[in-house]
Amino acid sequence: MSEQVVPRVETPSGIPLEPVYGPGERAAEPPPPGEYPFTRGNFASGYRGKTWTFRQYSGFGTAEESNNRYRYLLDQGGTGLSVALDLPTQCGYDSDDEEFGEEVGRVGVAVDTLADAEILFDGIPLDKISTSFTINGTAAILLAFYVAAAERKGVPREKLTGTIQNDILKEYASRGTWIWPPEPSLRLIADTIEFCAAEVPRFNAISVAGAHFRDAGANAVQEMAFTLADGVTYCDTVVERGRMTIDKFAPQISFFFYTHGDFFEEIAKYRAGRRRWATIVRERYGATTDKASMFRFGCVAGGASLYAPQAQNNLVRVAYEAMAAVLGGVQSMFTAAWDEPFALPSEESATLALRTQQILAYETGVTKVADPLGGSYFVEALTDATEEKIIEIMHDLETHGGMVRCIEDGYLQGLIADEAFKIHQQVESGERPVVGVNKFVVDEPAPDLATYELDAEGRDKQLRRLAKVKAERDDVAVREALAALAKSAEGDGNLMHNLIDCANSYCTVGEMVSTLKSVWGEFQQPVVF
């Protein structure tokens, strides 16, 4: 009798999988949850002590519109805010800049000055609710607005919790909202890290984001490896300045990822990433505390894994992805709405996305036991194999000169483009099954959605507010604050206090960015073939 031929199977990242796993497949039993290197989680009690943060990503139109949505989400049981900014704000332009007129408030909320930030967080207890900002090139400016707005509400900066994404390296390689060249951009990021460690101790100064690498085409293992390599670059920058130890600032470094549909690969990605980061922080930088060595991450369930055909299938995709993130030990999560391939989510779909997390947290039992998959022959073996692949990729980047060099010469962009093309080919050929796209396809009309439309009145309202602020502010104070910012940028002092002074003087985002451009210049993107 002939033996059955078992086909070769591998994860989407190319890690070969055995048909069955047993005790001989793993290197060693990992320590329990809460013990270095934290493979099984940062805390011994898992989610019994604290459930992950329900942080739904939102922001559109004017500050008033977004404030209403934030209040609604909090009323519906959200436990944190995640602010989406429009493209002018992300790229360092004001709403009255003619080049960006049609983009004002389109993919996020428009924030030009402190006046917008004050309205955006009106009625929200900033000493109790944590706020995450998906902002990079202008992250330090948005942090300055947030600190200034909070202090005007009577909330001292020491009580603020939240995160600014502030990860410029991935912008150069995958997304494009860069402004200045790498060297001054890294200097500004180091300024924010040192400032937060010294003065805003409960606020994460950076969220090193692999999600954008993933959206651009990277696979799960590349996403983690590229992200950790970026994290090393940021830590190197701060350590080399010699002003602060790793134990002081590392607790305020966090990470951010996409969770896609290959269930066990995603779980292994997070377990391996947590172990690798803890090892790097201890062995490369000499961290002495568990708090400095912990890998804290948030994620999105959704993104490029969602599709327009048979769009309600996305509800199922997001639910499975969210469970994978939780079993991987996520600290905060945004579950995408099923209609996001079409437009900004409706209030109804945004609520359903939040309910997905709440059902997962309160009905499925996944929070009752820390790392319930720990000890699984398969999960532990896949975690080991994933970490080995992460180490291999990081070593390759290091041999090519590190992340900045890999970005400047286009090497990193090339790796991502190659993988994106491979994934596209696999979906087109059917090698990578996608239900409703290349498998179980049906002809159906596009869903009739109540999509958000930014009207001209919203843009006009934003322009009127900006004009009013410019007319009523103290022009002398504005000029003095911007001049002081330029002078500090020419030296090596921390710019955060200058930016807060500019914020309190009602300088605009565009004015602060232009001032720094006059000193630092602008980044020129390499041509990648």
From TrEMBL:
<dbReference type="GO" id="GO:0004494">
    <property type="term" value="F:methylmalonyl-CoA mutase activity"/>
</dbReference>
<feature type="domain" description="Methylmalonyl-CoA mutase alpha/beta chain catalytic">
    <location>
        <begin position="11"/>
        <end position="522"/>
    </location>
</feature>
<keyword id="KW-0413">Isomerase</keyword>
<dbReference type="InterPro" id="IPR006098">
    <property type="entry name" value="MMCoA_mutase_a_cat"/>
</dbReference>
<dbReference type="InterPro" id="IPR016176">
    <property type="entry name" value="Cbl-dep_enz_cat"/>
</dbReference>
<dbReference type="Pfam" id="PF01642">
    <property type="entry name" value="MM_CoA_mutase"/>
</dbReference>
<dbReference type="InterPro" id="IPR006099">
    <property type="entry name" value="MeMalonylCoA_mutase_a/b_cat"/>
</dbReference>
<feature type="region of interest" description="Disordered">
    <location>
        <begin position="1"/>
        <end position="37"/>
    </location>
</feature>
<protein>
    <submittedName>
        <fullName>Methylmalonyl-CoA mutase</fullName>
    </submittedName>
</protein>
<comment type="function">
    <text>Catalyzes the isomerization of succinyl-CoA to methylmalonyl-CoA during synthesis of propionate from tricarboxylic acid-cycle intermediates.</text>
</comment>
<dbReference type="GO" id="GO:0031419">
    <property type="term" value="F:cobalamin binding"/>
</dbReference>
<comment type="subunit">
    <text>Heterodimer of an alpha and a beta chain.</text>
</comment>
